[in-house]
Amino acid sequence: MRLDQSGQLLRIDQKNSTFLLMRSEEQEPVVLPFQEETRFVDGAGNPQSPGELVGKKVNVSCETKKVYAVMEHSGEVPHCFVLEEIRKQPDGMWLCIFQNGRLEVTVVSDAEVRPYQTRNIVRMGDLKAGDEVIVYYDAITLSEPARTWTKKIVLLKTAE
């Protein structure tokens, strides 16, 4: 089951590997676990220590009990996915498929594509099925599949 939660990161408990997330003023804060492989990322896609995000608005992407990333908002909302399929379009843009084909993201031809924690050069043509990525976008269509576009992707982890 996929979960994307947004809110203010209130506290990190390193000892118990949990963090407290305030979703809204009307709701009780939630306690979410994190693992060693959980990425904490600033709004530009750069690595952050968990404590550096306390007090900031973040989006948490997780599946089942694995938290992929805790990401600071910076305009567009960051979402973490495993890339299922990628195709270059005739117009130079790229089509990325996520969530068992339920989400299609068009990546503009001049999109910023960057790696996480390295200075390697990454291009859209380097991405492949199985890669873990952060995709930044604002809104999606209510169609099936849902559609959106982005101008920024961060490669978190390449497929094995």
What does this structure look like?
- The protein has strands spanning 2-13, 18-22, 30-33, 39-41, 57-63, 66-72, 77-82, 85-88, 94-98, 103-115, 132-137, 146-157.
- Strands 3-2-1-5-6-4 form a 6-stranded mixed sheet, with no helix packed on it. Strands 7-11-12-10-9-8 form a 6-stranded mixed sheet, with no helix packed on it.
- It has 160 residues and is mostly beta strands.
- The mean pLDDT is 87.
Helix and strand arrangement:
Layout: E1 2-13, E2 18-22, E3 30-33, E4 39-41, E5 57-63, E6 66-72, E7 77-82, E8 85-88, E9 94-98, E10 103-115, E11 132-137, E12 146-157
Parallel strand pairs: 4-6, 10-12
Antiparallel strand pairs: 1-2, 1-5, 2-3, 5-6, 7-11, 8-9, 9-10, 11-12
Which features does this protein show?
160 residues; mainly beta; OB fold (Dihydrolipoamide Acetyltransferase, E2P); 2 domains; six-stranded mixed beta sheet; 0% helix
